[in-house]
Amino acid sequence: MSATWLHYLPILLLPVAALSGWYAGRRGGALQTGRRVRRLSSTYFRGLNYLLNEQPDKAIELFLQLPEVDKDTVETQFSLGYLFRRRGEVDRAIRLHQGLIARGGLSEEQRRYAMLELGEDYMRAGLLDRAETLFTDLVQAAVSVPQALRHLISIYQAERDWDKAIAHARSFEDATGEPMGVLIAQFQCELAEQARLQGDQETARARIADALVADPHSTRAGILEGQIELAAGNDAAAIRAFERVPRQDIDYLPEVLQPLLDAYRRGHDTARARAFLAEMVERYPGVAPVLALSRIVREEEGVEAARKFVARQVRQRPSVRGQATLIDLGMEAPGDASATLAQIKQISDQLLVRAPAYRCNRCGFGARAHHWQCPSCKNWGTIRPQYNLLGE
Fold first, then answer.
1. Is position 46 within any domain?
2. What domain range is 196 assigned to?
3. pLDDT, tens digit, for every residue of 334-366?
4. Count of domains in the chain?
5. pTM over 0.70
6. d(Cα 381, Cα 386) in Å, to the nearest integer?
7. Considering the domain boundaries, does residue 32 fall inside one?
8. Is residue 327 in some structural domain?
């Protein structure tokens, strides 16, 4: 029995020997590959570290060595192209990406990415016609459509080709589901401005209507509509348009307040003006509607009523303009001026308390007391005294 076992032992050991040889060979290859990958990874991550530390020159020097280590390191060449473009060496970026596109063996994804990068190179170089052709080809081939469309929108904005910008913004919205109405409304308003300046009021009105379809809350469209109606002598329509603007975005009240007041005055519609301004006083944090309403109060109720109204409002929202108006009304009002002076002193104190005496010249952080380190951006020695109307 033992003799038979010994006879078959070499045959039984053949698979073990083969497995051992395969393992030894694989281990040797793995070690060699591992050494190559370690060299590549070391260089690559050193380059990334230079990038993160804002040392692009050293990063480029390292990345240029990588193709010598591995000729198929496509991702590294993409990184190189980005670095060249970032440094303003657009010609080198263009040549690199053109070479990648012409090179065989790229995956479809890599080829699309190289074309997008080349298009960005062209845009940076000001070769907008070439970039447009490249991105249009990608869109027509149904390849990288959202990215290509986004770049095309940027190109048409730069060229002020608003009709094409609108068309491609709509295509982008269809492709991605991302709403583009706010941007389309801006493009329509650009076309409305052009038509208005050319004296084509009907086209301007049509473009404004299109803008409001795209973005019903477009403040720019409302301002344009009011300007067009004012120029046409349609004060009632202008008032409706201008009143709509701050109700949609209160920050734009100063942009429409004066033409709106002029339209009220021409129409002798003091009651509507007073009601609108009272609404704005409640909603707008600034002093502009207060001063406008004070003029109406002065005309209808007298100087003393206007002075009291301004004093009450400016205590809640202290400002230099409000203080100046209060001084003017106090000088007009009969009797002792001590009450007005006391109110002015109170407003001045509020202004000084609220105003920052120091400001960071790096990030703009305002402070009432000095700090050697800015609490916001953490830079040292950047908080400086303010030498202005309310500062030192």
1. no
2. 179-280
3. 655 656 666 666 666 665 556 676 889 899 888
4. 3
5. no
6. 14
7. no
8. yes
